[in-house]
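Lecture notes, unit on binding sites. The following record was shown on slide 14. It pairs a sequence with zinc ion.
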Amino acid sequence: MLDKKLQAYKKKERIPGVTPAEYKKEFPFLKEVDSFALCNVQLQLEKAFKDHFRNRKQFKLPKFKKKRDKQSYTTNNVHNSIRVDFEKGLLYLPKIREGLKIELHRRFEGKIKSVTVSRTKDGKHYASILVETENPRNKVIEPKSRACGIDLGLEHFAAVTNDFGSYKVDHPTYLLKAEERLKRLQRFLSRKQKGSKNSEKARLRLARKHAYIANARNDFLHKLSKAIIDENQVVVVENINVKGLLKSRLAKSISDSGWSKFLTYLKYKAEWYGRPFIQVDRFFPSSKLCHRCGYKNEDLALHDRIWCCSACGENHDRDVNASINLYYVGLGRPEVTPVERALVDDRSPNGLPKKPSRNEAGSSTTYG
Ligand SMILES: [Zn+2]
C-alpha cells in the first residue's frame, strides 16, 4: 500500500486509496491474520500521508520499516474478542485460539479497547492494552512542603530544595554501570565481522542492553518526578534550553541524562494533580545569586562548583544554592535582593531548617 502511494507521489499523480483486501490474492498469508490488524495499518498509513500534507516540515513522508526495527500490530476488541485471564496469566487475541502466556505488570479494570502487540529490537514481545476506565489518575496526596526548587545538573542528576532542606539526587549507580557495559558491548560488536553469526549475537546483546537502560532510566525519571509532585505544592525549575544545549559539546551527557523527559514528566504530573509548575525565565540568575543576601556573583564561571559570597561570606555549593533560589521563587519571592535581607535573616542560620526530605527514587546526599 505504501509503495503504491509513494509511486503515485513520485509521479506527482493523485495518491490512490488502497485497501488490504486488494492484496489478499497475491499474498495469501494476509488471510491468516486478523482483519483489524490490516485495517489499522491502512488507517495509520492514511493518517501518515494526511499529516504530511498538512505539515510537511513536522511530518516526513512515511518510509518502509526495516526488518530489524520494532515490529507491531494493533487489534481492536469486538464482541469480547480480546480478554485477559488474570488468574492464569493468559491473553486471548483474535485468531489465536489458545490464550498467550503473559507476564502481567498490573491488574486493571475497565473495558478493553485495543491491544498493540510488538516485538522490540532485542527480540522481546510486549502487549500494551488500552482500557477505558472511569478515573485513570492516581489519588492526590496532600503535599507536605509548600514549594520545591530543582536545579538539574550533570555531575548529580539534580539538587532539590523544599521546606525540609536541600538534597542532591545522584544518577542511579545501576545506570552508570549499565552504561559502562554498553560501551564494552559496542566495542565488542565493532570488532566482529559484519554479517557473521557472532556479529548478530553481539548486536542482539547490545540491543538488549540499550532496552534495559532506556527502561531503567524511564523508571527512575517516573519515580523521581512522582515523588516530587506528591511532596510539594509548587514546583519550580529552570527553563533550560535543552534543544540549544544539545548542540553544545555536552550534548551526549545531556540527552543521556533524560533532562527533557524529566521536565515533561514533571509538567504533566503537576497538571494531573493540580499543582503549579513554574519554569523560571532562563535569564533568572539562579546560580549567581547568593540565596542568603541576594548578592549577584557576576564572575561565577561554569566550572565553579563552590563559591564564597563576597558580600556576606556564605559558602555555596553551586547547585544547592541555585535550587534554594528556585525554591524562593516557589514561595513567591522571585528575587532575593539585598533590600530583602531582613526577610532572609529571620530564617535559621543556613537559611533553611535542618530536616532533610525523604526521597523515594535514587540515592541522595543530604545537606544541612
Ligand atoms: Zn551573600
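Take-home: Residues 290, 292-293, 295, 309, 311-312, 314 surround zinc ion (CB under 6 Å).
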